[in-house]
Structures are given as structure tokens and as C-alpha cells.
Specification:
Blueprint: H1 8-33, E1 50-51, H2 71-81, E2 87-89, H3 100-106, E3 110-115, H4 121-137, E4 142-149, H5 159-172, E5 177-182, H6 183-188, E6 199-202, H7 217-231, E7 237-241, H8 258-272, H9 291-294, H10 324-343, H11 351-378, H12 382-411, H13 416-419, E8 426-428, E9 431-433, H14 438-458, H15 466-481, H16 493-512, H17 518-543
Parallel strand pairs: 1-2, 2-3, 3-4, 4-5, 5-6, 6-7
Antiparallel strand pairs: 8-9
Length: about 550
């Protein structure tokens, strides 16, 4: 190592420590996901009411104005749901959903019938007309009519216009009429209570402006419910939406996971059994189309998955990822692949190089398994799948080439600093590169900078792709630790600029998450790991 590097004596031990830690973390991460988690049992598998939308199959979305769900599909859904739910809540009257009240009555279910309102007055009139007709036709199947859902939250109607629609429906039927919105908007528009028969409030601890940790979520719901009862005395209040997502990004303390969804539902049902409180859970089935609006998390609020299979039991332990042993198998395959690659044009002697390759390969395999798992939940179409696979292959190729160089530097008995006493300039396309890995490093710095900007300025619905970026970020960090005089050219000006911005963007994400999101800290560490070699090379080149 060059004598002017203050960390030279610690470089190799630290590199070994990072390699071992990465491999152990990879195994430990998947072991934890596969460990059964004990949760309180639910007093029952029956749930009072659940939001129902049939748009769960590939390509189905309510935004398709020509979409139509045939009555046979709705009949099959409600027949299955009737075994666990006494009631369903709908959100609109179009696209075949007007048949829900009639079909629900066949299975002795009640319906909270939704009339969808938005900016389009023509569409609103059509919904109102269909809703009134259904109220007269299927009166006995209705528990209530929800005129508008979060239309004030979306800013698509004024309070006055909304109140007029509610009054029209109320005058046309004796079925109880309400409006549904997040609880804060009822506080902002208390006059609406005068034109509704009862209030329908949404309490979603994960989506609160101050996200609530899963272990505190039910207590938060109970506190808000009691607070709203105090603010609207004499008025019945129903929780129109509550639940927890099983996949998606972590928001501060609020982690979206299958275990946390099961925890929330069980604890909420235990609480609901002790109070006189009408409620509706969101939602019956996972809704893939919502990922277009809310990112990964939007598609995973269902109690059942897209195949209408229960996602978790209401009693007994819950396992987050039953397929966790496959990820360890991918790690083993990664280790074998890296060892095979190391055998080609080997540049060292002894066992150290082989051990480092095996560790790097295993860690890379488990990280790519995490990337694949994220893709399985987040990818919305073939383009996103193809993009995710291609960039995963690029990450693997980068990690493989870096691992070979790291193995040579850890295992070679040759003093690499003596091989090139002065920096060797590499040029391609007229550009002087600081080392042979400049093109790959530049690519990953650019991608990480771009994604970091999106995270900071539009990160509410964006996942943390830590599994993907772990491969290049940790690899370049290790290469930087084992840097020789051969790698001492000044980094590209673009690299230097990105090396300054990448850590700042990572810090901004941590600040936005108020420092309590452990995933954001991991993201910051990867940002620092990729930026640090360039910053140190920049400093060193200025001294030469």
C-alpha cells in the first residue's frame, strides 16, 4: 500500500471484515424473514365489513372506462367473501358494480354502497342516478350509501357542491347516507355532519402525516375514534377504512410487511370486540392497479391476494417469507459462480483469494435474491420486469469483476504498489480514467444520483432497492480500501460532482424519515460506500 495512505495498515483487515459482515448479513436477513413470529390470536376470523373492488386480475383497473366486471365474477367473489364477512363496501356504481347489492343479498350480506364523485359533473350525475335507482331496487340489501369518497382530500369538489350531492341522495331514499374521508377532513369540514346521517372516517396509521409504528397502530385508531366522537357528540361515527399494507416502503416507524398486516388485523379485531363501533376494513383483495397511484404499497392492502387466497391466518405464528431457504440457495450458487469466474485467468496463489470470492459471491447472491423479491412485488408490467432483470444482471457483472480484483489484492503476495510506482494513465475515447473500473463506477454513481434525487423530491411511494445497489456500492468501497498507486489518477469531474451529491441526498432521505427509519440509514451507508472511494482518490490525486 502507498505509504501516504493513513488507513493502509488497516485496509486488508477492514476489507475482510466487510466481506464477512456482508455474507453474514445476507444469511441473517433471510433467516429473520423465514422465522415464525408469534402474534396475538384474533377472537374470530369473521370481520364485520370489508372494502370490495373486483379489479385484481392482470390489466384490470377502474381507470379503464370500458372495463366491465360480469355478474358471474362478482357472484363468485361475494360467495367466497360471505364466509368471513357480513358486509362489503363498494366505491362506485359503474363498470358492473351496480350488481353488487342484488348479488350480496343472495348470500345474506349487507352493502355499504358507494357513489363515486369527482371533477366531472356528467359522470357525477350518472353515478347519482344509478345510486338512487339501486337504493330503490335493492333497499333491503343496503346498510348505507356513501356519497363520495375522499373527494375533499383530492380537492376535486368544494364542500358546498359535495353537500348538495349528499342532500339529493338523502332526499331520494330512507337508506342512511354518509360521506367518507380521512378523519382530519371531517375536522376541516364539520358542517357536512348536518347533511349526513352518520360520519364515515378513515383511519390508516401507515398513511398518517406522522406514520404510526405497527405496535402502536390500534391504540392510535382507538384514540382518534374517541376524539372524533367527542368532537361530533350525538352523531354515529363509523370507521370506513382501516388496515395495514403487507408490502412496500417503510415510512419512518411504519413498516409494510405481511407480519405487520397480520398483527394489525388481529389486534384491531381484539379491540373492536370490546367496543360498540361500526367499522370497515380495507380491503378484501390486493389491488395491483393501485401501484400506479401509490407505488408498491398501494397494491397490498388486501386480506386476500389477487388469487383470492388468504394472505395470513388469524391464529398462530406468521412467517414473512416462507421461501427464505431459496434465497440462501441463490447465495450458494453465487459463491460457486464467483469461484468459477476466479479460476479463469487467476492472478493469485493461496486460499485467501478463494475465500474472498466465496464470501463475495454468497453475499451477492443473497442481495440479488432481495432484488428479485422486490421485483416480484413492485414490477407492474413486462417493461419493469425486463428493466429490473437487466439492471440486476449488470449489478451481478459489476460485482463479479470487482470481486476478482479484490481477491487478487487480498491474496497476492506481490506488493502491488511496487508494480506501478507512478500512476498509469488509461485513456479511452479521449477520456483519462482514474482506473479500469471508471466506466462501471460512473454508471452506478449516475443511477444512484438519479434515484436519490427522486427519493428526496418524490419519495413517498418509492421503494428502497437496497439489494440491487448493495452489489456495486460495497464492491467499489472494498476496491477503494485496497487501492494502489496504480489507481491514483484524478477522478472524472462528473464523478467528483456526484461523489459530493450522493451522500447529501442520502442524508436528506434520513432527515425526511426523521432518523427513525432503519432502512433509510442502510440506504445512506450505501451512498457513502460508493462516494467514499472517489472522494479519497480525488484528495490523493491532488497531493501527487
Amino acid at each position: 500500500m502507498p505509504p501516504h495512505l493513513p488507513y493502509a495498515r488497516f485496509a486488508r483487515p477492514l476489507a475482510w471484515l466487510v466481506l464477512v459482515a456482508a455474507a453474514v448479513f445476507g444469511a441473517g436477513y433471510w433467516f429473520v424473514l423465514g422465522r415464525p413470529i408469534a402474534l396475538p390470536d384474533s377472537p374470530t376470523a369473521k370481520i364485520a365489513c370489508v372494502s370490495y373492488a373486483p379489479f385484481r386480475l392482470k390489466g384490470e383497473t377502474p381507470f379503464d372506462l370500458n372495463a366491465f366486471i360480469p355478474p358471474e365474477r362478482i357472484d363468485a367473489d361475494l360467495k367466497a367473501l360471505s364466509t368471513r364477512f357480513d358486509c362489503v363496501r363498494t366505491y362506485s356504481m359503474g363498470q358492473g358494480l351496480g350488481a353488487v347489492p342484488d348479488i350480496a343479498g343472495r348470500y345474506h350480506m349487507k352493502v355499504l354502497m358507494g357513489i363515486w364523485l369527482g371533477r366531472d359533473p356528467v359522470a357525477n350525475e350518472r353515478e347519482i342516478k344509478l345510486g338512487i335507482e339501486a337504493a330503490r331496487r335493492d333497499h333491503d340489501s343496503l346498510r348505507g350509501i356513501v356519497v363520495g369518497n375522499e373527494v375533499l382530500l383530492r380537492g376535486e369538489l368544494s364542500e358546498k357542491a359535495l353537500a348538495a350531492y349528499i342532500a339529493r341522495v338523502n332526499e331520494a331514499t330512507d337508506v342512511p347516507v354518509t360521506y367518507a374521508d380521512v378523519w382530519e377532513f371531517w375536522q376541516k369540514h364539520p358542517a357536512l355532519a348536518k347533511v349526513t346521517d352518520y360520519l364515515t372516517i378513515h383511519i390508516l396509521p401507515y398513511w398518517e402525516d406522522e406514520p404510526v409504528a405497527p405496535e402502536d397502530a390500534v391504540r392510535h385508531v382507538a384514540d382518534v375514534y374517541q376524539k372524533m366522537k367527542g368532537e361530533f357528540p350525538g352523531k354515529q361515527i363509523m370507521i370506513g377504512e382501516t388496515g395495514w399494507p403487507s408490502q412496500g416502503r417503510t415510512r419512518r416507524h411504519a413498516s409494510a410487511s405481511l407480519v405487520n398486516e397480520a398483527r394489525y388485523m388481529r389486534e384491531f379485531l381484539n379491540y373492536a370486540a370490546t367496543v360498540d363501533m361500526p367499522y370497515n376494513v380495507i380491503e378484501a383483495f390486493d389491488q395491483p392497479w393501485k401501484r400506479d397511484l401509490e407505488g408498491t404499497v398501494g397494491g397490498y392492502w388486501g386480506i386476500f391476494d389477487v388469487d383470492a387466497k388468504p394472505k395470513f391466518a388469524m391464529q398462530g405464528p406468521i412467517v414473512e417469507e416462507p421461501r427464505w431457504t431459496w434465497a440462501l440457495g441463490i447465495g450458494v450458487v453465487g459463491a460457486l459462480l464467483f469461484l468459477l469466474a476466479g479460476a479463469i485467468r487467476r492472478r493469485w496463489h493461496g486460499a485467501s483469494g478463494w475465500v474472498s470470492l466465496a464470501l463475495a459471491g454468497f453475499a451477492s447472491g443473497t442481495a440479488l435474491a432481495a432484488h428479485a423479491r422486490l421485483l416480484s412485488f413492485a414490477a407492474r408490467d413486462n417493461v419493469e420486469w425486463a428493466t429490473g432483470i437487466i439492471i440486476g444482471v449488470v449489478a451481478l457483472a459489476t460485482a463479479l469483476s470487482l470481486a476478482r480484483a479484490i481477491a487478487a489484492r487480498l491474496a497476492s503476495p506481490i506488493d502491488l504498489a511496487a508494480v506501478a510506482p507512478r500512476p498509469v494513465e488509461r485513456r479511452r475515447l479521449g477520456i483519462a480514467w482514474s482506473d479500469a473500473f471508471t466506466p462501471q463506477r460512473f454508471f452506478w454513481m449516475f443511477v444512484l444520483t438519479l434515484y436519490g434525487i427522486l427519493q428526496v423530491f418524490n419519495g413517498r411511494y418509492r421503494d428502497f432497492p437496497i439489494g440491487l445497489f448493495a452489489l456495486p456500492c460495497i464492491g467499489f468501497f472494498l476496491l477503494g480500501l485496497l487501492r494502489t498507486r496504480e489507481d491514483s489518477l484524478m477522478p472524472l469531474v462528473e464523478e467528483r460532482l456526484m461523489a459530493v451529491w450522493i451522500p447529501l441526498l442520502g442524508i436528506a432521505v434520513v432527515v425526511e424519515e426523521t432518523g427513525v427509519n432503519a432502512v433509510s440509514w442502510g440506504w445512506l451507508l450505501l451512498n457513502l460506500a460508493l462516494a467514499w472511494p472517489v472522494l479519497t482518490a480525488w484528495r490523493r490525486a491532488r497531493r501527487l
